[in-house]
Amino acid sequence: MSTPPVIRVVEREARVFSRLWRGTVFSTLVAPVLFLAAMGLGLGGLVDAHTGKVDGLTYLQYVAPGLMVASAMQIAANEAMWPVLGAVKWVKNFHATVATSITPGELAVGYVLWIVIRSLAASAVFLLVAALLGAVPSAWGVLAIPVAALCAAAFSAPLSAYSIRLDSDISFPVIMRVGVLPLFLFSGTFFPISQLPTWLQPLAVVSPLWNAVELARAATTGTFHLGADILHVAVLVVCLTAGLLWGRRTFTRRLTS
Amino acid sequence: MNARANLFRVLPPLTQRQRPWRLVERNVLAYRRTWVVFLSGFLEPVLFLLSIGIGVGKLVGKVPFDGHEVDYKMYVAPGLLAAAAMNGSLLDTTFNFFVKFKYSHTYDAILATPLGTGDVATGEVVWALMRGAIYSTAFLVTMLLFGLVASWWAVLVVPVAVLIGFAFAGAGLAATTFMRSWVDFDYVTLALIPLFLFSGTFFPVSQYPAGLQAIIRLTPLYQGVVLERSLVLGAVHPILLVHVVYLGVMGAIGLRVAERRIGRLLQP
Q1: Residue A243 lies in domain
Q2: Mutation target among B95, B131, B203 for the A interface, most CBs of A within 10 A
Q3: ipTM score of the complex?
């Protein structure tokens, strides 16, 4: 029984990463913790003094799960844009991959799986630091790690399917600024979406990030609402599945012509 | 007009002093194709203003400043403007410069013309500053629309933003000449994010323990944040000139180092 092709793809990425991980430590591990310190502790001091509790939580506890899944989203978005286009246009290692017995469809799945593994690791580190700072009141908080990974999957599957079709990276900074950044700032990460203008709230509700933030916050605070939480998972799974199906088509089209 | 422009191009010695502008012209032309990217650069601070300033601002209430209390959104807006001036300038002089230098080989082509390495350094900095001036003017207008400007001193906001950009442009260019590959750009993030988060941008430095406060008062973005906030909120004192001098000297040193390093890197 040989290694499944999808795992081969993950192995390739992991081997490359083992040489390059130093260049990612700061932006994927340290930066989110700094955001937590600045917003949760610094700004949180002012919030706690003025408002008391936000949704029954200290501001540090409120903002921690949001930042955790938001950074998983950012890792996913980054990895599903420039590196994917690079692998098909500049370095062409995806062409090398499909010259083996690995199919484009398997490559698409394997690449998303690799991003999921990376965000699992990053989220685990973040959760540990957050717990040490007192931002995670419940032991159910460990469940926030798979939530963050699911969030990363829900973003990286459709984005990598999109990126592989491109010929230039010109749209990437626009996606970051018009898509990823607004999600980061307005998906219930820093303040409850009930504070948004009413016409914006439905938009926030369908955003995958908001669903993931709500799930992660349910986990770190240990307050679950079964019906709502199943809906949150469903939204994320729909994004992931749609992304994977689309990715199988776009990867095949780009890599077999 | 066109004929005259062409004449100056075939007789470059006539326009020695304008040579860096040729590089600026090149960048303007290049951006005409990607104006969406250019426009979206303005969005970033506005989104932060809406989210942190207005959204979280409701949870924060008022913040002490210069002996009285101000609304959090008024407090944070000038901080965001200063941070955006730093971000934009660093983005242009690090990532964008590196791509042109290492991958597009833009400068190899440019140096085959009468332009020299000094013109490249000056031209890129001038371009970064012009871009910064456009963005900060747009952000200042946004602040006015939201009613976040309290003083006429705010007319100096854009020049100060350009000064902040200048300080970081020199440093950014100089740093980029030492970069070997993309992996090294994590160091840019390493400098950028702590400065962005902890320079009194989002909350008063009095939130920190005394030792940390002293260190933060020495960092570059802090100077810019204090300047912009004092102008917008109308708390102008002669002591602010110290911050101006700090930023000016920082930019001059950075540019000097960058010019010399670029000379060594690009000249065969």
Answers
A1: 5-255
A2: B203
A3: 0.89
